[in-house]
Amino acid sequence: MDDMQNSDICVIWQTHRLDAGSLDEYGRLEKDCQGKFDTLVLYDNSRGDFEQPAAHPTTEFSMFDIKELEKKYKLNHFREPVSITPGNTIFPLLDFARTHRYSCYWLIEYDVRYTGSWRELFSYFSSSKSDLLGTTLYRHEFRPSWCWWDSLRKPRYSILRRKNWIRGLFPIMRISAQGLQVLEKANRKGWRGHYEVLLPTVLYHYGLTLEDFGGDGEFVGKENKNRFYTNKPLVDGLGPGTFVCPPTQPVADWLPNKLYHAVK
Predict the structure, then answer these.
(1) What is the DSSP string of 71-116?
(2) What are the pLDDT digits (tens) for 187-237?
(3) 148 in a structural domain
(4) Closest CA to 69 of 42, 51, 50, 35
(5) How far is CA 126 from CA 40, 43, 219, in A?
(6) Is 27 exposed, middle or buried (0-12, 13-18, 19+ CB in 10 A)?
(7) Domain contains 38
(8) How far is CA 264 from CA 22, 189, 243, in A?
(9) For residue 220, what is the DSSP state?
(10) pLDDT for 167-198, tens place per residue?
(11) Residue 252 in domain
C-alpha cells in the first residue's frame, strides 16, 4: 500500500469534464467519506486540458490518456471518434490500481447521483465479499437481443457456454483487487469485448463472485430487491426507473436513498 493511503478502500470519481454539477456531487461525496475512505477524481486528460478547479483546490486528481491505455491493453474501439467510452471504461481504473494498492475500489462516473449519504451506501456493502458489485446484471438467455453480446472474444482454446455470458451496467461499481488482477490476466490472454459483458463474464468464468446493488434479478440479495435503484432490464433504455440509459434531468421529487443515472 502507498504510504499516503489512509484506508483500504478507494472511492474514485471518473470524468472527462469538470463542470460544476459533476464536481459539486463529487464534493459532497468527498465530504461524506472524509476520515473513512480515500477519495479522488480520475480525469481523462487525453486532450491535455487539465487545470485544478479553483473551487476544489485540495481535491486529488489522477490522470489517464486514452492513447496510452490503447497501446498498453490493446483496446478495441466501440465508437468513433475514439473514446474510452462506451466500451473500455474499466481500464483507467485497472491501470491506476497497478500503482495504488487497495483491497477494493469504488468507481463512479460523473453522471451518477445518489440521494442519500455516500458514506452510508459504501458502508452498507462493507460486509459483502463479492468481487464485483454493479447494476442490471443478467445472463445472455434473459435478453439475447442486447447489442454488445457479440463483442465478446475469448482465447482460442477457452470453453465458454452462452449461459455463462453475463452483462451489467457499471456507471457505479465496486471491484476487488483480485477482480482487477483477473481482468488484467484475461486481457493478456486475449479476452476482449465491451466491458459491460467482458468484465462480469471474465470474473464469473474464473470463479469470482458477482452481486447486484438492487433491481430484481438473479444476482440481487433478497434484502436488496429494488433497494438502491430501479429499472426495466428488458426494455431498451431500461426505463422507467432511477437507473437508466437516456439522460435524466435533476428533479425535485427524486426518491430518497436511490442511485440515479444518467444525470446530464
Answers:
(1) HHHTPPP-SSS--STTT-TTHHHHHHHTTS--SEEEEEETT-EESS
(2) 999 999 999 999 999 999 999 999 999 999 999 999 999 999 999 999 999
(3) yes
(4) 42
(5) 19, 26, 17
(6) middle
(7) yes
(8) 9, 37, 13
(9) B
(10) 999 999 999 999 999 999 999 999 999 999 99
(11) yes
Flag the least confident range among 57-61, 100-104, 260-264.
260-264
Domain range enclosing 70? 9-263
Q: How far apart are the first and last CA of the chain?
A: 36
Confidence category of residue 79, pLDDT binned at 50, 70, 90: low
Alpha carbon distance 131, 113 (integer Å): 23
4 in a domain, yes or no? no
- pTM, two decimal places: 0.94
Provide the number of structural domains found in the chain. 1
d(CA 239, CA 135): 14
CATH number of the domain that 118 lies in? 3.90.550
How far is 254 from 15, CA to CA, in rounded Å?
23
> Do 252 and 221 form a contact (C-beta atoms < 8 A)?
no
Is residue 70 a contact partner of residue 63, using CB atoms and an 8 Å limit? no
